[in-house]
Write a sequence for this structure.
């Protein structure tokens, strides 16, 4: 019942941003935890690749659905967004350079800000929906 309402908001997109930020935070924390491990190469999830895939999923959702071939399966909005982070190995890259703790912590802080911003916007979306459903002003 509420899925139709949620799909008309930015909540599904924000959910993908939060999930990506959580996954990236785990990778960055692993880099810090393994800084003293001999031969360890730092890893990261590409923010640019994620943003590109998310943008493509959003644009695909906005395209008119009249160009569908007969027998072609129709991807639901949730399926398109789920495909954004379906294969995180395609956006995972290994850095060949030794990276200092300062750079890793800086990336973690930027990632945390992105995560918190998405959660704040999502919270506001839920409050708006709650207000609309309850009929209060």
């Amino acid at each position: 019942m509420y899925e139709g309402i949620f799909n008309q908001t930015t909540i599904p997109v924000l959910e993908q941003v939060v999930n990506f930020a959580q996954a990236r935070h785990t990778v960055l924390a692993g880099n810090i935890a393994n800084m003293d491990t001999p031969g360890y190469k730092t890893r990261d999830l590409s923010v640019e690749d994620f943003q590109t895939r998310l943008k493509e999923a959003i644009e695909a959702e906005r395209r008119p659905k009249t160009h569908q071939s007969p027998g072609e399966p129709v991807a639901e909005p949730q399926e398109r967004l789920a495909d954004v982070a379906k294969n995180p190995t395609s956006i995972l890259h290994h850095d060949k350079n030794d990276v200092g703790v300062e750079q890793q912590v800086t990336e973690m802080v930027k990632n945390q800000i992105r995560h918190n911003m998405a959660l704040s916007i999502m919270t506001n979306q839920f409050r708006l929906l709650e207000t609309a459903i309850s009929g209060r002003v």
